[in-house]
Amino acid sequence: xxxxxxxxxxxxxxxxxxxxxxxxxxxxxxxxxxxxxxxxxxxxxxxxxxxxxxxxxxxxxxxxxxxxxxxxxxxxxxxxxxxxxxxxxxxxxxxxxxxxxxxxxxxxxxxxxxxxxxxxxxxxxxxxxxxxxxxxxxxxxxxxxxxxxxxxxxxxxxxxxxxxxxxxxxxxxxxxxxxxxxxxxxxxxxxxxxxxxxxxxxxxxxxxxxxxxxxxxxxxxxxxxxxxxxxxxxxxxxxxxxxxxxxxxxxxxxxxxxxxxxxxxxxxxxxxxxxxxxxxxxxxxxxxxxxxxxxxxxxxxxxxxxxxxxxxxxxxxxxxxxxxxxxxxxxxxxxxxxxxxxxxxxxxxxxxxxxxxxxxxxxxxxxxxxxxxxxxxxxxxxxxxxxxxxxxxxxxxxxxxxxxxxxxxxxxxxxxxxxxxxxxxxxxxxxxxxxxxxxxxxxxxxxxxxxxxxxxxxxxxxxxxxxxxxxxx
Amino acid sequence: xxxxxxxxxxxxxxxxxxxxxxxxxxxxxxxxxxxxxxxxxxxxxxxxxxxxxxxxxxxxxxxxxxxxxxxxxxxxxxxxxxxxxxxxxxxxxxxxxxxxxxxxxxxxxxxxxxxxxxxxxxxxxxxxxxxxxxxxxxxxxxxxxxxxxxxxxxxxxxxxxxxxxxxxxxxxxxxxxxxxxxxxxxxxxxxxxxxxxxxxxxxxxxxxxxxxxxxxxxxxxxxxxxxxxxxxxxxxxxxxxxxxxxxxxxxxxxxxxxxxxxxxxxxxxxxxxxxxxxxxxxxxxxxxxxxxxxxxxxxxxxxxxxxxxxxxxxxxxxxxxxxxxxxxxxxxxxxxxxxxxxxxxxxxxxxxxxxxxxxxxxxxxxxxxxxxxxxxxxxxxxxxxxxxxxxxxxxxxxxxxxxxxxxxxxxxxxxxxxxxxxxxxxxxxxxxxxxxxxxxxxxxxxxxxxxxxxxxxxxxxxxx
Lengths: 473, 464
Hints:
The structure holds 2 protein chains of 2 kinds.
Chain A: H1 37-47, H2 51-66, H3 105-114, H4 118-124, H5 134-145, E1 150-153, H6 154-160, H7 162-168, H8 179-187, E2 192-196, E3 206-207, H9 212-216, E4 222-227, E5 232-238, E6 249-250, E7 253-258, E8 263-270, E9 277-286, E10 291-298, E11 303-306, E12 309-312, E13 318-327, E14 332-341, E15 347-356, E16 361-370, E17 378-387, E18 393-402, E19 408-417, H10 420-428, H11 433-449, H12 454-469
Parallel strand pairs in A: 2-4, 3-5, 4-7, 5-8, 6-9, 7-9, 8-10, 9-11, 9-12, 10-13, 11-14, 12-14, 13-15, 14-16, 15-17, 16-18, 17-19
Antiparallel strand pairs in A: 1-2
Chain B: H1 18-33, E1 58-59, H2 69-73, E2 82-87, E3 90-95, H3 97-102, E4 106-109, H4 110-116, H5 118-124, H6 135-144, E5 148-153, E6 163-169, E7 174-176, E8 179-184, E9 189-198, E10 204-215, E11 220-228, E12 232-243, E13 248-255, E14 260-269, E15 275-284, E16 289-298, E17 304-313, E18 318-327, E19 334-344, E20 350-359, E21 364-374, H7 377-385, H8 390-406, H9 412-436, H10 449-459
Parallel strand pairs in B: 1-7, 2-6, 5-8, 6-9, 7-10, 8-10, 9-11, 10-12, 11-13, 12-14, 13-15, 14-16, 15-17, 16-18, 17-19, 18-20, 19-21
Antiparallel strand pairs in B: 2-3, 4-5
Helix pairs in contact in B: 1-6, 7-8, 8-9, 8-10
């Protein structure tokens, strides 16, 4: 891909050779490339993991090595991942560096257009390994701590709160769930651990952003969130700004637990650079009358495979996935949702909107499962795809299993393109073709974006404008 | 557990040309070389693969029914231009062919066609892909195919009345391989109906049928298949349809019989203006499994397809629907629709639905939908308030549910035949339940079929 991008087409692709990251040789905390038991020992020693974690990791490594790639249904692009070439653990201080001057112009411009603060730009562009958010983080941590909320990194979580951590860790997503959850279980580092006590309603959303310097944007982050009875929490991960990284494999595991009557909303905006394989496993466990909602927004990466799920374990629990995927040239967004109904009167709702631009490919893959013994379960699934260019591609592969009494499911999907009449109408009123296009696309996702927190929806809109500009003419 | 399957073809003294023997031998090799489907194969997802029994079935067995009985058993309720009757793959009756020949229309059994029309068979026999998972069974079919008809309608010829074939399984452990090949020339028109059934409703058997529809430019072909095998039959029904410029195909698969019935249907829209309407209707009882896989393949610009598969499932029966609309990169102005609707008449029944899309062109209109639900309680209450027992009420509503499919058939008489076939299945299910619940009769005499037909009409459009 070319680093020279025409002025009017500031897309988010960057030349990976320009302003290359450089690795100093003498890392104190570098596990080297490849993945063996030695690597695991190294990670455990460096992080000071307790023995049960070491054992857990080693078991997971075995599972990872034994499991085949899921290429019988998934993209063959997975075969391009060379597991032996990766560094599986880089501790702090071992982050790549480059200077601001080396950051490609189009990237700088993107930051400007998105209105990213100066300090954050430097971090996001990989100029600074650390983003000094200590002040913000400790403020928010202090504020929520007064309510008894635990908001720490997964490492502190397992050390300081083992009684809660161990109870749920690996329970929602078992190690052997898939090859990449096994990989994460073997080498995880970073991520958040949150516990919200009974009845506590956390007013402001907690953001992974606050903890950027706590190795949060790790390759293999592991997040565990437990919201106790009647408590409420909104958590946000990622940001709309593009995140540039030389590490090309990301495989996170996120486990959510909502106890009786709890409400938990998890928002992700994923905008990795277009060389990244983003293979993520996310699942929530909803107890009686609890509600788990995933808002999942995928814009970046080369290949994303992510199907946030909810296991509806308690009666009258509710699961929801709202998903937006934007696939530009060379990208494949393979996203979707899983709803596993495991109790009576559970309801689930999936709304997915995807936009394919240029040679981009957006795929919806879903699973809805209502077994024999259940009564009164409902699922609604809607998938809409918008295709912008003639070489754009979209796929829909839902799987719906229904049994039992008084259960009903409905699935609908449509594929469309931006109506030429709409564009013509807007051009008549003085908009350029690009502006008209992005207005149409924003209209297409508007219904979902409205449900996002305000700052996210504003940034998302700008981002769609940016992505759309290069797509017409 | 599964052995090599049926024995390789034995000719029963029928002479076939060497090229045909060569093809069959090749297909047999392919069948043996292709592995059995496995649970993790995407094309077999959710299917109960253990239900596929190829073990001991014997093709070409002499049945138990007297030869004379076949003609009587094989009488469609609608008038028809020609009829062929096969039992255990042996031809018993072929009528109407001569009349058709005067118009230049070929209606010939496969063995007759080998003799008289080898060029047509060489060119068209299984010339189009069967690739929705059952490749192994397509090869098995090719290795054994000897029964069935070749239909060739020349350019500009319209055949008004339907052409009909009957295929019967007779006795225990028989295997049959019904074949229907329709070649419709430019601007021709034809309707073909296949009836598949068992002489012994409980006899074990294997049926591995295949039908190819080649719809020439501007031609119109209707194909209706009544699958009513006995309750212990493993069935494959593989269809490949290819529609040329401005041609129109319409297929309906009525699935009522068999223990496990795999039905694959592929439509290739190969010329601008080509249209294909793909319909399916299944009624499941006991532990029946209907495994349906479809593909709407849009290869060129400006084509249309519309699929509607409806399943009503009672007891512990199960339906699987996996459909795909595939739009090739150049196939702009594609208009494709895919709809799977399932009605669960029993909490133990299961409907698995996988409606898929692969769209590689932006200038298209493609939608799909899938719903699964129960009978509307209010409608059922309405019927019960009028003295209809719940099970009958549910079945009446299921009739209404199927009307949307049946109404799309152009030939009303065939539509009636579909209604009757569905009603017969429901009646069989009901009489069984009456035996179980003798108190349910409440002193009322069983309703007549006229009464039932009136109810059905009254309820049309209420359920859905």
